[in-house]
Recover the amino acids of this structure.
């Protein structure tokens, strides 16, 4: 059975599909699951044991070229034609579209007996064939406040999955990213004995931003009053947006570790994994934290609706400005002076943080820790395994569950498997002339090999000892941009070793 | 567990000499099929910018070294033929006429001919020095002897376009061998643009519903 899942953009939306992917694999263990996603987002799915093939779609490049380089139109058209032809040849028994009209058009061009989540026909336009999608649209277009189901659970319903109490987010970060995260944190020379709290201050859409002054105050109090180290995460684009003012931090400013714009998706995931909490708005990193098992304290203002997009998994905290006008669809025309942000003061956030600390250490959350219209909600599950939000004080103390955990150490089969897939992807990139992508991917691939080698040697396994010269030759070939030597290295040196490794690992397991 | 040995190439390896025997055989066929091109190859006197390097399987590959000392290979140092066959597997299945951009030492064109054996094969190479080297080092007689093989070396974009216009426009496809074409982007890119445009127009004509669907998708992509 071949299944195609379509979602090309937005980090959080892609991660929110991972519980569905796990459910599909459990329900159809012999299926081959393909995910079409934006080229920039493939690291989110790389190493996910429930994804058999990632089909990268360079959506950003398309959008840019279609607007700015009209001469490229024929080649873009042809590339799309080729991709669709390739997917038609594979043939899909089920296509799950999670990208509304674009996905519907794409799914319908690929074709298949069963398209859910929205399909398209020239004579009908965009339409829904499945009941859960129609229900979702009805509720979103009608009264969103009536919706009490998270989009993760909606996706599972749309995929036709039964209730399941093992729905977990998944973001495999990998050993290299973990090591890099460690290096970033260590290089900050902060007080190592302090625990880490991550803060994501930016948000892709301005109306979801809380404001730098507010975050600055919270950060100062986390460091000065609560003895924490704070890790600032965020994208390169957000770096200018948020220049933290260090006034008033005294000598403690060394405990503010600014990683904005410095870390890849995987390394950000690994940084989050090391933190005891992430404080953020409704953002992509919120879902990353949930996926690596780090609790979240998230701030939901007018446009965001925590029942739909709140962090998935048990034990996350949500501060929600529960005003009669929320969730609003047009924040630019707000007539209430953005009250939803005004009521969310830094004191409210720090009160919620104190409640989280109490919960985490096994205590109870007091009923009055925040005042209306702000509510402090916590994530939990109902009897069917779907997410529910409950008042935080109703939660018993404890530590939130981790996401789907993947042991990617040397002893696992994860790293060889992922390197094999990456290697094949690199060869394909070079064969298809996507050299820049190939070089970038090869550099990351080689970094994994250096890690593998170091780990192997530290375990007394000398099988990779002879590889240093090879790896250095690869670095030289990267400098020369010699795609042939790099392709040779993957195919004739690295891949045979991986095969041998998998074979020996398999034999060891059988013994 | 240990790594297989790696053939030494680049600045580490030894180079190979060419064979007069192979050259004579290739030239005899080329002279029969394309005498003007054969004369150009025989009279080629450019400064050699390539050197041959042995591959592990006994065949040869070629490398060039830039002024900055950066080495670039154009075929596998392990098994150029296997590499070429895999690349030939990318050939568009619906192509009647197939253009191959970048000849190199010819392995890829030979492999494509094996996979794509019944239609015209239009081979385009920017560098006459590379063809000269190929003729001296790889047996290309079966490829060159094929009346459906058309070899263009350093021809202008206009001449190539004129030739393509004379072909049946249906089911034209092309393949780029990037290790070679990336060395001469200013030559190959305009040719690639011509090919893309012709393929686009043909597809719109042959499968209008699918074409409209993809155009709708592209509009949606633009937002």
């Amino acid at each position: 059975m071949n299944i195609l899942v379509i979602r090309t953009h937005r980090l959080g939306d892609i991660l929110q599909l991972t519980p569905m992917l796990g459910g599909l694999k459990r329900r159809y263990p012999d299926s081959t699951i393909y995910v079409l996603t934006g080229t920039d987002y493939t690291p989110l799915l790389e190493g996910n044991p429930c994804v058999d093939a990632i089909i990268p779609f360079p959506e950003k490049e398309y959008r840019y070229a279609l607007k700015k380089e009209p001469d490229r139109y024929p080649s873009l058209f042809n590339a799309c034609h080729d991709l669709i032809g390739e997917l038609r040849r594979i043939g899909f028994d089920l296509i799950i579209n999670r990208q509304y009209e674009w996905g519907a058009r794409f799914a319908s061009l690929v074709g298949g007996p069963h398209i859910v989540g929205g399909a398209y026909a020239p004579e009908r336009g965009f339409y829904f064939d499945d009941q859960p999608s129609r229900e979702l649209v009805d509720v979103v277009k009608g009264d969103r406040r009536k919706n009490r189901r998270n989009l993760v659970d909606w996706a599972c319903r749309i995929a036709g999955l039964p209730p399941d109490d093992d729905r977990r987010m998944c973001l495999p970060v990998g050993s290299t990213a973990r090591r890099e995260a460690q290096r970033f944190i260590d290089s900050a020379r902060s007080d190592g004995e302090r625990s880490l709290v991550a803060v994501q201050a930016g948000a892709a859409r301005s109306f979801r931003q809380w404001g730098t002054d507010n975050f600055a105050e919270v950060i100062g109090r986390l460091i000065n009053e609560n003895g924490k180290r704070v890790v600032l995460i965020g994208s390169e684009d957000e770096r200018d947006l948020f220049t933290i003012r260090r006034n008033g931090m005294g000598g403690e400013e060394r405990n503010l570790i600014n990683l904005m714009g410095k870390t890849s998706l995987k390394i950000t995931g690994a940084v989050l994994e090391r933190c005891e909490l992430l404080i953020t708005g409704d953002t992509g990193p919120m879902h990353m934290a949930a996926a690596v098992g780090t609790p979240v304290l998230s701030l939901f203002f007018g446009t965001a609706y925590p029942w739909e997009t709140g962090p998935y998994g048990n034990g996350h905290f949500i501060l929600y400005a529960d005003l009669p006008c929320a969730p609003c669809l047009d924040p630019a025309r707000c007539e209430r002076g953005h009250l939803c942000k005004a009521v969310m003061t830094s004191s409210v956030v720090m009160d919620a943080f104190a409640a989280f600390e109490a919960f985490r250490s096994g205590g109870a959350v007091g009923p009055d820790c925040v005042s209306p219209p702000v509510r402090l909600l916590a994530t939990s599950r109902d009897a069917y395994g779907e997410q529910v939000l409950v008042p935080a004080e109703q939660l018993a103390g404890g530590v939130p569950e981790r996401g789907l955990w993947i042991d990617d150490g040397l002893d696992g089969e994860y790293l060889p498997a992922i390197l094999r897939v990456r290697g094949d992807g690199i060869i394909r990139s070079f064969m298809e002339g996507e050299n820049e992508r190939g070089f970038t991917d090869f550099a990351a691939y080689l970094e994994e090999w250096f890690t593998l080698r170091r780990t192997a040697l530290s375990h007394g396994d000398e099988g990779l000892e002879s590889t240093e010269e090879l790896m250095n030759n690869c670095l030289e070939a990267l400098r020369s941009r010699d795609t042939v030597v790099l392709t040779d290295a993957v195919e004739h040196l690295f891949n045979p070793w991986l095969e041998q490794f998998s074979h020996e690992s398999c034999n060891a397991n059988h013994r | 567990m240990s790594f297989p040995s790696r053939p030494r190439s680049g600045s580490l390896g030894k180079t190979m000499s060419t064979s007069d025997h192979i050259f004579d055989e290739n030239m005899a066929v080329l002279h029969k099929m394309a005498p003007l091109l054969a004369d150009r190859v025989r009279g080629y006197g450019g400064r050699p910018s390539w050197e041959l390097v042995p591959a592990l399987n006994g065949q040869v590959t070629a490398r060039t070294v830039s002024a900055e000392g950066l080495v670039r290979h154009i075929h596998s140092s392990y098994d150029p033929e296997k590499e070429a066959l895999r690349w030939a597997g990318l050939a568009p299945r619906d192509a009647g006429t197939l253009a191959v951009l970048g000849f190199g030492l010819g392995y890829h064109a030979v492999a494509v001919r094996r996979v794509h054996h019944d239609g015209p094969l239009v081979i385009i190479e920017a560098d006459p020095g590379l063809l000269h080297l190929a003729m001296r080092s790889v047996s290309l007689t079966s490829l060159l002897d094929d009346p459906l093989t058309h070899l263009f070396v350093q021809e202008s974009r206009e001449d190539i376009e004129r030739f393509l216009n004379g072909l049946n426009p249906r089911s034209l496809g092309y393949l780029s061998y990037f290790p070679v074409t990336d060395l001469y982007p200013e030559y190959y890119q305009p040719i690639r643009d011509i090919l893309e445009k012709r393929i686009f127009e043909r597809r719109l004509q042959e499968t209008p519903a699918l074409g409209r669907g993809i155009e709708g998708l592209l509009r949606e992509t633009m937002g």
